[in-house]
Design brief:
Order of helices and strands of chain A: EEHHHHHHH
Helix content of chain B: 40-55%
Number of strands of chain B: 8
Radius of gyration of chain B: 20 Å
Structural class of chain B: alpha+beta
CATH topology of the largest domain in chain A: 434 Repressor (Amino-terminal Domain)
Radius of gyration of chain A: 21 Å
Number of domains of chain A: 2
Number of domains of chain B: 2
Strand order of the largest sheet of chain B: 3-8-4-5-6-7
Distance between the termini of chain A: 34 Å
Oligomer: heterodimer
Shape of chain A: elongated
Structural class of chain A: mainly alpha
Number of helices of chain A: 7
Distance between the termini of chain B: 47 Å
CATH architecture of the largest domain in chain A: Orthogonal Bundle
Largest interface: A-B, 43 and 56 residues
Chain lengths: 139, 331
């Protein structure tokens, strides 16, 4: 790719940042050039984020409906899934799944909750509730 | 204090950027592509049974820490590496190394780095950066993929260094203990170039190197049998791994082309310069492939995705890559 073809499309996912790219100058020599982004990269990053939002929205609804504990929503809201939460909290997946049940979640000890707090980076109060409103964007 | 000694620079990729900058600060002036090439960093791997966020692992470079390890092996630098089971100990060690005036490499998770753009914060634990100083409760950080140095609270960096899970950093810290004054390029360059080409052509696993690219192409052809949402996310995931995660542009093919060009100049070898051009064309092919996918998933008219066309495009990229490696084996 030549430097003149390095995309400069100010993509939203970079939030004003730039990435360094290697591209060739007119004489064929490689150089480093800062790129404000390529719409192709923006499209796939946004796709991934929208999927995460969709999962979090669906999870929110099921927690509101009383099917799952707040932990289930916060897992998706923090861009995790079951394997990621299990690994970062150090619990087996079957145990995390058990803690998705509202009745069981309510009885969890401070110690267990602290591990989830730590893994998700959320205060205990936030972990044990869900926000009153969930933005219903394009997710 | 430390700021006066340390000079940040902007790189395409974290680990090769950290190593280039660190060696530069220890008197060995090598570019990022040179650090990448000397470590035999170029790779392709499609590992369906290792999942990240529900999607298979697709990598365009060797394993995290592979560039550090490759440089140790190939050019004789020695790195001191520390990992920790206790986060507080990890922070104490970092503070004491900084107090000694060292610039320290660290492995982190991008999700927990507060200065990262929110739309780029994913649970990826293999991000490298340099901590070059501390002012009260903040670290001075040179993140190679950012244009300017940043600051990060001590507690936030500790969190980012001690996440658990796939590729858990375990607080990894590293710095050079020994750096050679110069490199015997005449001897080392042909060796690492042939070796990397051999890895790409002859790794006896159907998921690594050029055969890995072909395996992924076959997988794409089969996606038409899957649910549309999954198929579309899978395609997007390939491009994210190529352009967003790790970067380097076109899955590191441009960095490697730049390395081949530099090597060609040093060794005065026109074959290498020609291979550099061929590798640039391969990189352009990867970008065309990414563009086809972006068009397919953005498609608003709801036309069915032409998986065969995308798969065939990738097969042709694989063939042109294989040609470059065959030529590089003869260097």
């Amino acid at each position: 790719m030549e430097t003149s073809n390095v995309p400069q499309q100010d993509i939203s996912t970079y939030s004003g940042n730039k990435k360094a790219m290697y591209a060739t100058q007119k004489n064929g020599d490689y150089t480093v050039i800062a790129s404000s982004g390529w719409s192709v990269e923006e499209a796939v990053t946004k796709q991934a984020i929208q999927e995460l939002e969709r999962l979090a929205n669906t999870a929110y609804q099921s927690v509101v409906a009383g099917k799952f504990s707040p932990l289930y929503f916060h897992m998706y809201d923090q861009r995790m899934d079951l394997p990621t939460l299990a690994q970062s909290s150090g619990f087996f997946q079957w145990r995390v799944k058990r803690h998705f049940k509202p009745v069981i979640f309510q009885k969890l000890s401070t110690k267990i909750l602290a591990r989830y707090s730590d893994a998700l980076g959320l205060d205990r109060d936030i972990l044990c509730t869900i926000p009153e409103k969930r933005k219903q964007g394009n997710g | 204090m430390a700021e006066t000694h340390f000079k940040h620079d902007h790189f395409a990729h974290c680990e090769s950027g950290v190593m280039s900058l660190m060696l530069r600060h220890h008197g060995l002036d090598i570019s990022e592509p040179m650090a990448f090439g000397l470590s035999t960093g170029l790779m392709f791997a499609y590992i369906p049974f290792v999942k990240l966020g529900g999607m298979p692992l697709i990598a365009y470079r060797n394993m995290p820490r592979g560039i550090i390890k490759g440089l140790q092996k190939n050019i004789g630098i020695r790195m001191k590496m520390h990992t920790f089971s206790n986060p507080e100990k990890g922070t104490e060690m970092l503070n004491s190394l900084l107090a000694q005036g060292k610039f320290v490499g660290a492995q982190t998770s991008v999700f927990w780095l507060p200065y990262f753009p929110p739309e780029m914060q994913f649970h990826f634990n293999g991000h490298n950066l340099i901590v070059y100083g501390r002012e009260e409760n903040e670290y001075l950080i040179s993140d190679p993929v950012l244009e300017n140095p940043v600051r990060c609270e001590i507690s936030a960096l500790q969190k980012a260094r001690f996440v658990k899970g796939v590729m858990a950093p375990k607080g990894l810290l590293y710095y050079p203990e020994f750096v050679p004054a110069e490199i015997d390029f005449e001897k080392i360059l042909p060796k690492v170039i042939r070796k990397n080409a051999k890895i790409m052509l002859k790794t006896p696993l159907p998921i690594a190197g050029v055969s890995g690219i072909r395996a992924l192409a076959r997988k794409i052809a089969k996606l038409k049998k899957k649910e549309t949402r999954y198929a579309s996310l899978f395609l997007g995931h390939i491009v994210r791994m190529q352009e967003e995660i790790g970067t380097g542009g076109a899955g590191f093919r441009f960095i490697y082309a730049s390395f081949l060009q530099e090597a060609g100049t040093i060794l005065d070898n026109s074959q290498l310069s020609e291979s550099s051009q061929a590798m640039t064309a391969v990189g352009d092919g990867w970008r065309d492939f990414a563009m086809m996918i972006a068009k397919a998933i953005r498609n608003k008219k709801g036309e069915p995705i032409d998986f065969m066309a995308i798969s065939n495009k990738l097969l042709s990229v694989a063939s042109s890559e294989a040609e470059v490696y065959k030529r590089l084996m003869q260097i």
